[in-house]
Every structure is written in structure tokens, then in C-alpha cells.
From TrEMBL:
Name of the molecule in the record: Fis family transcriptional regulator
Organism of provenance: Kocuria turfanensis
Domain Purine catabolism PurC-like: 7-123
Domain PucR C-terminal helix-turn-helix: 451-509
Entries under InterPro entries matching the protein: CdaR-like_regulators, Homeodomain-like_sf, PucR_C-HTH_dom, PucR_C-HTH_sf, PucR_dom
Gene3D superfamilies for the chain: PucR C-terminal helix-turn-helix domain
Record Pfam families: HTH_30 (PF13556), PucR (PF07905)
Amino acid sequence: MITVAQVLGLDGLGLRMVVEGDTGAPVSWVATSELADPTPYLNGGEIVLFTGLNSPVDRPSWGRYARRLAEKGVVALGMGVGRSLSHPEVPEQLVEAAREAGLTLFSVPEETPFLELIQAVAEMRAAQERTVLEAMLTMQRTLTRAATGADGSTRVLESLAGLIEGGWAAICTADAEITHRSGPAVPELPTGRSLEELVDRLRPARLRGSLSESGPAGSIVIHPLGVQGVPLTYLVVVTPRPVERVQAGAITTAVALLSLHAERAGERTLFRRRVRAGALALVLGGDVRSGDALLAVAEDGGWAGSSRRVRVVRLRGDAEPVREAARRIEGYADRTGHRALVGAAAQHAAGEADVAVLVEDDAELLRALREVVERSGARAGVGGAAPVEAAGTSEHQALDVLGRTTARHRVGVWDDLVTGGFAGLLPPEAARAFARDLLAPVRAREGGDQLLGLLRTFLAHNGNRRQAAAELGIHRNTMLQRLQAVEQALGRSLDDPQLRADLWIALRVHAG
């Protein structure tokens, strides 16, 4: 950037400050014009040179002239003066007008051609451009050397942070989990928004987007990493000041280098994912040893002989949210040291996808899984805990629970159904039909709903008529009469244990 002060400080041109305005303003170019109003031909940021051939003759005209230039964004006005020119000195009226407009005004001696000043500024711009290019080339070499070493991603981040004074760089996942960073401390983000919010805002653009925001405490820049498909990681750069051109070039170079790292890592991840999917199919089929043999190809540990119990999770929903949820579950497990196997996605005719996931029976992992599913918009059924050799049973349970999930209740857990008793395990429609048909004769009697309440209390006391009557506040004989009415309606004795069990289940379903 060239400033007005730098131009006025050029040696050998004899430029003399007359009115000092904002001399730190950046100069875009130097233009010459003898027009009374040159502003239609200016873009702002120029130094305008003139000799006053068509200059105003009264003070109000000088005021309008200076004001128009200042409003257009002209950063300085240079007037050529000398005995053979229109004005031997800068007119006092112009001096007053420039001062009122806040416009820098300087004089150019007759012996200094305007072209010489223009050439000097052009040379300054060329020299600065060379300096910028050299600095960018040096940065590119530094980052490239870092990328070719061991643990290239971390070294690139450290080098990038070192090239940006006071800067910090990191790589995060699509969940805004930081996986690599340039330093141990995570700085406060300058815009007041969380990293998760910023990444969520950027994710829909995939590889096409980037984000740059500034605040009182500095700037943050986020770029997706990768070459194709959906970005799994993002580069995050935090700087204490606005990002300059050379720094922006360094960030762009880092994005390219880290994207290559991400692509190679993605290829390894895809290979491991395919191996894990094949191993999961074998494990769910009951062949755990063959599954372990396949996992050894990807240098993954086996599952046979483990004392830890496992659960199978079945994910279902629109294809992309399901795949995203499966990737996040797998990524979380890898980062936290838990174990997970993600199967291949099966596409359904309705456009939905279905994915099986085998996970360790761990409360922390299950909480994270629930959060991932809720955020993704998919649905999930979680099977019961079982030895890995019985993972197929857990899968059947997961499918059963998955069929009971809804848009409001996206995650179903087998344990919750079991806790609710046998009634909860029945298919909902079949359970309601069973309850309706069994209880219909009693409900058809006069005072049928009252009889059902009495029956529920009777069964809750395991058939103890005296205790049930006491709870209901009725005489024991009244209790016996009403139970007889129930038996007459059903055509069966309440001493039958099977009938009691059926009635209890029906009443639970009816109440639900």
C-alpha cells in the first residue's frame, strides 16, 4: 500500500506540503486533469495533478472544486506552480478551500514534470508488488517444507501461525471438534460466535464456500479442506488484526497443502470404512473370527474374546443425514478411544437410507450418539447390550425399536421398552387391537369404565380382594359382586393366571 505521505516524501521531486489532510490515506493512482470538474472520470483514492489552466476565479468556485474532489474520495491535490505556468504560487483561495474540505494540498515545482511523479509512483507500486510476491513465495516455501515433514498437518499449522504475527491456526471436524492446532491454548473467537455456529453456517456450501469475519478483537477465517465431495475438516485461522494480502496468500497456500493431506487421509479413511463395513456384516452374521481377520487388514483391533458388551444401532432417514450421522458417530468413537463399526448404507425405494452401527456398550458413547442423531434429523433404534457373538440379536432389537420411532421421538432404546414390560414389546397396532377386543365385553356393561378401574386395582394387588376393596373404599361384598360382573362379561374366571396376565397387559395398553 502506498500512502500520500510516501508520495510527498519522494526525493528529488521538490514536492511541498501546503495543506495537510489525511496523509496516511492509500493512493490508488496519480491522475492529471485540467477540467473544472474531473470527478466523473475518477474512482476515488487518486492524487489529482493540475496547473490551473481552467481554474476557478472566485473563492466559492474554489470551494466547490475542492469539496467535489474530497467527496469523490480523492486523497490529495497537487498543483503545478511556476512563472511560466498559470499560477506562480498556490492561490490562497484554494488553500482555504482545501483546508475546509480536509483535502491534502501540495505544490509541484515547474521543473518537475507530472509524468516524472507518475512514473515514480508506478515504480513504488512495482517495488511493493515485488516485495509482496517475494514474501508470498517465501511463505509458500516455508509451508511446503512443513507439509513434507512428519506430522505435516500440525507443522503446517504451526508454520502458518508463525507467519501471522499473533495468529492461531487449527483443523476442526464438521462437528467443530478441533483435531490439530498450532498451540495448546484456544483463543477467544473475535466475533463472539462459537466455532460450531460458524462451521454450521459454512457447511451447506461444501467445498465452494469460505468464511471471513472481523470484530474488535481481530479476524477469523474458515476454509473447507478437501478436493472433492463433502469436506470432513476445516482450516480455522484467528488473527489479532484484519488479514493482509500476504497473510491471505499464506492461508490460501495452507488450504491447498492441507487439502492434499485431507484427501490422502480421506482415501485411507474410505479404505478403512469399507473394511469395517465388511467386518460388521460378518459379525452380525455370527462369524466374529472372520470379521476380526478382515479388520486386521486395516490394522484395526478385533472384537472376539472381549469382555465388553456391545449394542447395534440402526439409523434410518434421508440418505445424506444418515451418512452424516454415521460419519460423526465413527469420528467421535475414533477421537475418544471408543470402538465402533459402521456398515454400508442400504438405499430404500422411498429415498431413505439405512445404516447399521456396532458400538461398545458405553453410556458416554450412547449419549453422544443420541445427540448426533437428534441434530442430523435421522432416526435411530438402539438394541440391547449383548456379547459380540450375539450382536445379531441386538440388531433385531434395534430394528424393532426403530420401527417405533417418530419425527418427535427420533431415538428409541430397547432397554426403555423392556423397562415398560411385555406390553411395550408388542407391535403398537396389534397391542391396541388386542386390548380393545379383550376389554370390549367389560366396557359394554353398564358402568364399564368403572369396572375396568376396579379390575386394574384388583390386579395391582395380585388378586387380593380385601386389599383392593380397602383401596377403593368399598365393602368386600360389593367388590365380589363387581368382580363377578367382570367374569360374566368375559365368560372366564379371574382365577385363571393367563387371563390375569392378558388383562393386565390390555389395561396397560388401554391406559397408554
